[in-house]
Amino acid sequence: MDLGIVFGLLGVLAGIGLTLGLSRRRPPAAPQPEPGELLAQLLDANRALLDQERGRAAAELDGKKALIDQQLASMTTELGKVDRLVRGLELDRRKAFGELSNELRRQHVGLTALTEHTQQLREALASSKVRGQWGERMAEDVLTLAGFLEGVNYRKQSTLASAGRPDYTFLLPNGLVMHMDVKFPLDNYVRHLEAAADADRERYKDQFLRDVRDRVKELTARGYLDARDETVDCLLLFIPNEQVYAFVQEHDRAVLDDALRHKIVLCSPLTLYAVLAVVRQAVDNFRLERTSNEILALLREFSVQWEKYAVQLDRVQQRFDGVAKEYAALMTTRHRALQRPLDKIESLRTHEQALVDSEIPALALDA
Question: Least packed by Cβ within 10 Å: which of 27, 176, 245, 352?
Fold first, then answer.
């Protein structure tokens, strides 16, 4: 029960008690109401107070209900925003997860294909014949990139007079050539890469470096440099892989020095391109120099012929001048000398014709 109602009832009871007390002290001035009437009045007052408090409580309850409804509407709106945000995040998560799944699937397919190609390459490189073909293909790619044409700048597998047969023979000016071999030992290098134990890797590394040295010695015995009047004083050994070339340089630098002492230049794809670029520039410079010399010789011949032409032209000019003088004399002096008799003849003919014309009428009159 509300405190206001309690305090109201206490006030009513206090008033009743005070009234009863005063009635005992004073002499009755008028007849007092019956106790039942007083109780009815008390109940009516209490009922009025209760109705008043009930109305005030209902008003407060309605206000609180409206406030609660407003807060619930605001919370519903915010919950709707949160729900939309969560739904959007869920859609983004599903989309991102789907893209990630697709990307992982593509990566898996790519890795599978790469593994298959690597296995195929490993199996292919296990054959010395296939390695040789692969090296030739790498060399041809470098030659094409450097602008070399087969039959114009180089020949393939041409047999020499010394019975040697280099893989490539480059054609240089003045009938010179430069040879290159592309076959290179890679068996022990592949074993070195695939070895699991350190001792095995070290053993295969030493065997690979010995294979390189043996390959250099083999080239020196093939007689590629015997024809000194046709061949330049060096030949090329092509290593068709930059990593292998760097491996040789890193672990046995003396191999390159020994090869140079035997006039053999080891080339990777990049260094081969640099060498061929220098060779191409030298050939172009030689051709330009030869063409310049031919042009200078032609200019000298032209100068001699021009001098002869000028002398002959002067003679013709002198003859033309003489003919012009003779023609001028014919058109002036000789023409006037010939014209004077003709003028006199014409004068005489005119005079005779006038006389004949004057005599014809006289003869007619006589007749």
Answer: 27
User: What phi and psi values does residue 121 have, to the nearest 5 degrees?
Assistant: -65, -40
Sole residue written with tokens 């007390």: 21
Distance, in Å, from the CA atom of 354 to the CA atom of 367, rounded to the nearest integer, reads 21
H helix and E strand count, the chain: 9, 5
DSSP state of 26: S
Residue 64: CB atoms within 10 A of its CB come to 10
From CA 175, how far away is CA 280, in angstroms rounded?
15
What CA–CA distance (Å, rounded) separates 196 from 120?
Answer: 21
The answer for residues whose C-beta is within 8 angstroms of residue 290's C-beta and 6 or more apart is: 173
What is the amino acid identity at position 284? D
For residue 200 the two structure tokens come to: 């095995």
Residue 183, CA distances (Å) to 121, 137, 238 in order: 17, 11, 7
**Is the CB of residue 160 less than 8 Å from the CB of residue 229?**
no
Asked if 181 contacts 167 with a C-beta cutoff of 8 angstroms, the reply is yes
Domain ranges of the chain: 71-125, 129-288
The pTM for the full model equals: 0.47
Q: Produce one character per residue of 177-197: b if its CB has 16 or more CB atoms within 10 Å, e if not.
A: bbbbbbbbbbebbbbbeebee
CB 179 within 8 A of CB 224: yes
CA dihedral 90→95→97→101, nearest 10 degrees, is: 160
Instruction: Give the model confidence (pLDDT) of 263-298 as tens digits.
Output: 888 888 888 888 888 888 777 776 676 666 677 777
Structure tokens at 232: 């330049």
First-residue to last-residue Cα distance in the chain: 194
